[in-house]
Design a protein that fits this description.
This protein has 259 residues and is an alpha/beta fold. The chain is 45% helix and 17% strand. It folds into two domains: 139 residues, 3-Layer(aba) Sandwich (Rossmann fold); 111 residues, Rossmann fold, CATH 3.40.50. The protein is built from eleven helices and ten strands. It is globular.
Length: 259
């Protein structure tokens, strides 16, 4: 049974794996966390595109039937130039569609510096609903805080409050979590924003998209689910600890080198 390939710069993409497990319980996943080059969000578009191509090439060489580019930065800047013999899904368009469908008119987007600079979410949202007011905010400290496991720490709360303040001032009713690390901060962000602001997880949206696309193509797995497999390029011990917390079970890791 061919797995679905998923890659991200670190543990954040495991939120997509969790969403895929819920939506497509029979599908095995081959995950690649490029932890040696984390974070992607502060790097140039050319560098991110080069890393993305190498990640996809590795997953394809392991026999995946398709690849989810779970990294929002890579989805924003690398997809147009990506070469792949198998289908590739990014997280920008599914997340934007879900936000556009839910918003009452004012959407906030949080992401890495590269994702926000690209305006990929803003452009997608305006294509879907030109009348939307879109406000974006780069939150570069969120990724290292999540990678450290500081999900509900006073320091994280203070930083999040400062990042969210301009969006709150704009009166947003929907917030797009434009990085796969950010859903791990959902309880904190929801508490700070209050019940009047809905949160959109692009991982959940892309899992729904895969279910629809694989179903139409007749590629859905059936029967007993095979085990997921996890590849990392560095920091295996910390990744394993956080992965067990995110997925609810211990994971075995394979250390790989991207060339």
């Amino acid at each position: 049974m061919k797995p679905i390939g998923v890659f991200d710069s670190g543990v954040g993409g495991l939120t997509v794996v969790a969403a895929l497990r819920r939506r497509l319980p029979a599908e095995p996943v081959l995950y690649l966390g490029d932890t040696a080059r984390l974070p992607y969000g502060t790097k140039s578009a050319e560098t991110v595109a080069r890393y993305t191509q190498r990640n996809v090439d590795l997953l394809v060489s392991r026999g995946v039937k398709g690849v989810v580019v779970a990294c929002n930065t890579a989805s924003a800047v690398a997809l147009p130039r990506l070469r792949s013999p198998v289908p590739v899904w990014g997280v920008i368009e599914p997340g934007a569609r879900r936000a556009a469908a839910r918003s009452r008119g004012r959407v906030g987007v949080v992401g890495t510096e590269s994702t926000i600079r690209s305006d990929a979410y803003g452009a997608a949202l305006r294509r879907l609903r030109p009348e939307l007011a879109v406000a974006s905010e780069a939150c570069p400290l969120f990724v290292p805080l999540v990678e450290e496991g500081w999900l509900d720490d006073p320091v994280t709360e203070q930083i999040a409050s400062r990042y969210l303040a301009p969006l709150v001032a704009r009166g947003i009713d929907t917030l797009v979590l434009g990085c796969t690390h950010y859903p791990l901060l959902t309880p904190l962000l929801a508490r700070l924003l209050g019940p009047g602001v809905g949160l959109v997880d692009s991982g959940e949206a892309v899992a729904q998209q895969l279910a629809e696309d694989l179903g139409r193509a007749g590629l859905l797995a059936s029967g007993r689910r095979h085990a997921d497999h996890f590849l990392v390029t560095d920091a295996a011990e910390r990744f394993g600890r956080l992965a067990a917390e995110i997925l609810g079970n211990p994971v075995s890791l394979e250390l790989v080198e991207l060339v």
